[in-house]
Amino acid sequence: MSRIVRIALPLPRPLLFDYLVPAGMNPAVGLCARLPFGRGEKTGVVVAVDPPDAPPADKLKPVLELLEDIPPLPSEWLALTAFAARYYQHPLGEVISAALPPGLRRAVKLPRDDDPWLATTPAGRLALGEAKKITRALAAVLAVQSAGARRRSQLLGDLDGDASGAIREARAKGWLEIVARAGEREPIGALTLNTAQQAAVHAVNDAAGSFRPFLLFGVTGSGKTEVYLHQIAHTLAQGRQALMLVPEIGLTPQLMERVASRFPGANLVSLHSGMADGARSLGFVQALKGEADIVLGTRLSVFVPLPRLGLIVVDEEHDASFKQQDGLRYSARDLAVWRANAEKLPIVLGSATPSLETWQHAEAGRYTRLDLPLPAVADKPPSLRRIDTRRVKLDHGLSPGLIEGIRTRLARGEQSLVFLNRRGYAPVIACPQCNWVSACPHCSANMVFHAADRALRCHHCGHEGRVPHICPGCGNQDLHAFGRGTQRLEERLGEHFPEARIERVDRDAVRTPAQWEAVRARIEAREIDILVGTQMLAKGHDFPMLTLVGIVGADAGLYAADFRAPERLFQQLMQVAGRSGRGELPGEVLVQTEFPEHPLYEHLARRDYPGFAKRELAERKMAGFPPWGYHAVLRAEAPELDAAIAWLNTARAVAESLQSPVMLYDVVPMRLVRRARLERAQLVLESDNRPGLQATLAALMPLLYALKCPRELRWHIDVDPGEL
Ligand code: ADP
Ligand code: ZN
Ligand code: ZN
């Protein structure tokens, strides 16, 4: 009897396809398969074997290849992807494809398993110490050094671009050597936990084998990571695997090193989207085969199959990078909770400033809150002072008070950090005579001025242009850069403090973990006096000589149109404020604001997250925003706004005909209407309960797929959107 497989293929429609299995192949659910499709080939995953409702075999095309050398994806994995498809209203084949590493997605052969462990040699350490400049080969040495030892494939993923040449060079120079396994270096011993940490570790350890969500609530430095490490140790000791998700900027060499050196014999796999395809596939398959003990990665790691999974940790669970913003628009944190429930595991969500959704779960008793107060010795919160910018004259955005503060620190040999809340503060080129601005030709946004290469760049579509010599509007030769970008601030500070060593830290200046590592080393070595930067600086690093944090441009987050803006602002400011006074010296935070009495700043001054959350949750409740209301956004984009709006209005009429209790907003143009030559509009659906929204969406989607859709129009649905 001929056998048939049902396959999920990456196509923009929720369809499954049946294929014939040629003799000699052994079909199984979860295997990847290469198939003929249309005039080409595609790769998909077997979701059923011999489905009872399959059409007659003579109507089907045969499978080209089953990738039997990779174990089939386990049923828990298929259940997770099926849930994501259902919940986010996304075709299963595309979900599966997004959940697979790019290599498996295309069914390319895995890289040869010539994947040695590399460690730095004494010569390599010497070269690092003496280097004036970090070359690519030295960057490889640095990355290995900070991890203790690294598999070649993983190291390739740590570095930018194709680093195989750099690794070869480092080996030829005798800086890197092949070692037997990771466990060649000294394990760094576990610390003796304080009482609160012990309680947190015990609570989670006791929950092993059952679904229990925990919120680990503690500021940076309160010892959360130490708690995770103890919980992971307990998990590994039981022969289980641990999955730890961190935000994009949280996957630092220091964290890798800390985890790797704590578990020298364990197979640690790290995964993030910047890794080379081969390395990602290898890590994924090692996890699938049960060879990985710990998976440490960014949001996409939530989809790593782990047959012995015992614990999930989500660090900085409030971080916006856990939500994917295109394609399958999933929340890795929410999927992690679902996965913990489905696989009966404890899950630990850690944060100093939890998302209001998570906070409310804890308040309602659905999550167990574990508090980590700062140990008494370290509890010297920085004093927070508000500078009322309505009463002082600003010099390019800098108040006299802030400039004075920096001057004092310089005189004392201490460090300062000027933090710029970037929202709405990127510099643009404009003409003061005719009001011409450097608008992007493809978007309803202005292009941002980059002083380093005197270029204009659109941050939404990537369009690039040169700065004009004369105003295109009126011929005026005196064009100005407006807005307080980090580059502008850096320049201005340089004029004030010509003797100071100033360093800018933003996504333009610091692009890679290795670059960030180098900056960090220079801060620690006190080679930098003033840091200027954006949220990159916020993540927990201890700089004992940093005693002043100045915050510029924060008000933009108070009254933004986006309902999550205050939450994000508070989270960000708590994090940057925590950068100062981490050592022996007391810290000070200066917030420049036009709204010094705003409650958000009051709560911030007292480091009172619970108070802030209470107030913000009350406001959200009145407005019907999450966690009291549930949303999905249907977005459409087309060359003409009218076409997008017309399609959405049709969709709205279809939704109305369902007569569900879900509320339909009016179709409106999006705030950033034009992006990359396309004009965009949206329709918000709102419900006071999640199942209600889900039921409506499930009924609506097939009708939307059936709608006539102009060829140049694209639409998608975003469930639990990051913003409305
Ligand atoms: P978080 O993840 O909350 O920022 P960490 O776990 O990184 O906190 O701890 C902050 C610092 O305190 C680290 O340098 C860590 O080594 C140290 N630390 C944490 N727990 C303890 C402990 N129980 N005893 C001594 N030092 C600790
Ligand atoms: Zn653009
Ligand atoms: Zn002009």
UniProtKB/TrEMBL annotation:
SUBUNIT field: Component of the replication restart primosome.
Encoding gene, per UniProt annotation: priA
Domain Helicase ATP-binding, residue spans: 205-372
Amino-acid positions noted as binding Zn(2+) 2 in the UniProt annotation, renumbered to this chain: 440, 443, 458, 461
Record text on cofactor binding: Binds 2 zinc ions per subunit.
UniProt cofactor(s): Zn(2+)
Residues the record lists as binding Zn(2+) 1: 431, 434, 471, 474
Summary of the function given for this chain in its UniProt record: Initiates the restart of stalled replication forks, which reloads the replicative helicase on sites other than the origin of replication. Recognizes and binds to abandoned replication forks and remodels them to uncover a helicase loading site. Promotes assembly of the primosome at these replication forks.
EC code: 5.6.2.4
SUPFAM superfamilies: P-loop containing nucleoside triphosphate hydrolases
HAMAP family according to UniProt: PriA
Name recorded for this polypeptide: Replication restart protein PriA
Gene3D superfamilies (UniProt xref): P-loop containing nucleotide triphosphate hydrolases (3.40.50.300), PriA, 3(prime) DNA-binding domain (3.40.1440.60)
InterPro entries: DEAD/DEAH_box_helicase_dom, Helicase_ATP-bd, Helicase_C-like, P-loop_NTPase, PriA, PriA_3primeBD, PriA_3primeBD_sf, PriA_C
Family recorded in the similarity comment: Belongs to the helicase family. PriA subfamily.
Reaction equations catalysed: Couples ATP hydrolysis with the unwinding of duplex DNA by translocating in the 3'-5' direction; ATP + H2O = ADP + phosphate + H(+)
TM stretches of this protein: none
UniProt KW keywords: ATP-binding, DNA replication, DNA-binding, Helicase, Hydrolase, Isomerase, Metal-binding, Nucleotide-binding, Primosome, Zinc
Gene Ontology MF term list: hydrolase activity
